[in-house]
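Slide 14.
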Amino acid sequence: MQINGKKIVCLGGGVGTANLLAGLKHSGDITAIVSMADDGGSAGRLRRLYHIPPSGDVVNCMIALSDADEVMQKLLAYRFPGDRYAPDNSLHGQKIANLMFAAMMGILKDFPKAIAEMEKIFKVKGKIYPSTLTDISIWAKTSTGHMVTREENIDLGKFKGQLKRLHIDPKNPPAPPGAIEAIQEADCIIAGPGDLYTTILPVLLIPDIQNAIKSSKARKIFVVNVANKRFETPNFTLDDFVYTIKKHCGDSLFDTFLQNDNLNIDIPAKYKNEYKYGP
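Slide 15: predicted structure.
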């Protein structure tokens, strides 16, 4: 499928989505729809401290789509030294762009307007929408019958057993009309790569978004991670990704699953890992 000049919607928001957007930003009309479940790291700290929506995934996408000069892009991405998981009111580990979002929210009191103004300042090539404007959180049940709450705890593996089912709270948060319109008008919809349970599924579980994808006539592509995440998708095969999406969404949603087949690049010894792929 040729994507140049096409309308492309990317779902996710983490580092994987950012790399995808960076590669696509000059290929077509790009829209990113990002997770609002983030409550960890520096953006999560600002979310709790100022009671504002999480900006971390928005910032990732904004940096990737920015056409500003190099210094401005570096400014947007700059993170102060220190621990990202420092106390909420500490400057340690904070990213400049997250602080700017907090300031813009203080001025405008409106998250979509804050995103729009930041897009102008940093010459973003494309459009970024939050998956919902509702204050949401995620929780999961594990194979041992335990429940783990908060995105940060899931991301850091603070649970027993293996993740089995993810939930969003509240169950039916509405998606912004602009995000749904972008999906409806898309020629191509891409989810991933990224953390399956903490970045991708929190977007796909928004009912409005899920229904819009199901009814869309666009080409629907899921990009499988090059490497599995230790706590979220240990030993996952391609079939596991397909099964997990179908279990959560009642449908595989995607007609194409893209999997890496370049096994010629050496994995650094410090990761103590090897390539393993299922059917």
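Speaker note: The mean pLDDT is 93.
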